[in-house]
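Fold description:
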Amino acid sequence: MEAPSSTMPRRMSRAGTDPRVRTARQALRRRAGLVLAAITGTLLLLPSTAGATLPTAASPGDTAKVDKLTSQIKKLEKQYRGELQELRDSRLAAKRALSKSDGLKRELIGARSLVAQIAAAQYMTSGIEPSVVILTTDDPSNVLDGATMANHLSNNYSTRVKQIETLIQQEQQSRKEAKEKIAKLERTIGNLNRQRANVQKLINKYKPESPLVGASGLTARTVNMRTTIDREFGPFPTIGCLRPGDPGEHGSGRACDFMESTGGSMPSAARQAHGDQVAAYAIANASRLGIMYVIWKQRIYDMRSPGWKMMENRGGITANHFDHVHISMF
């Protein structure tokens, strides 16, 4: 029988025979296996401990419902002869909530997939991560302590488990919000449908007007409203009315923005009080002037559905109408 080759590394030969190395590695595998088993059990329990299993069909069903409600909004706007900002606002909120829910669901799938891949990799390496195997040397004094490796595995998994738990909670909350916003939209549409007869009487008061070329494309009714408000409360920093290309009343010459500040800054307390007076005057004189709705401080007062109603946060001072009173006309 040939003697062992002199080229064989002594450390490798010693690693295969030294009982201390084998014992240390066996201990590592046992501890890693226990950690892996405990964490795998935790992952299997996650859906039930955090709530119901995520339904894959909920989002498509809700999306179809929003699409159906959108068709109803368009029909109502045609009957009500103008934009229904309250409905558009509620629809936008529902779509945003659904989009957020879908995004969180994709993140959740990715996080679970990553944990599954790590678990599979550790299983294929007898419960030890490849990086740990590489760090393990033939010298027993340099073999990673089993407890240290177990802690490493536990921390690695616990971070991802917590991420999954958080994602599940966020997705469920977002889906709940989306359903609530869709329900609110349905209720608003129902209310408008029920008061259609009264709204029709209101609309019949105001004959549709054509934009006037000599009045910068505004309707006669809008010109009268702008002049009246400016005479009663002016001067304003600026008044903006016609906005070519705008799909709403600004584009058709039937709306004006009465600015209380400039540059997107929050108006002073005095200018905010001034805006309150402008909005109150517009509402009190809506029937005489032909005003359809007023928006001020992230609230809308629609004469076709009276009462101040909060609007969704659009992300800025100007977008939320904190720096100007918006008045739309029939």
About this structure: Residues 1-16, 38-58, 128-147 have pLDDT under 50 and may be disordered. The CA atoms of residues 211 and 219 lie 4 Å apart. The radius of gyration is 34 Å. The chain is about 60% helix and 10% strand.
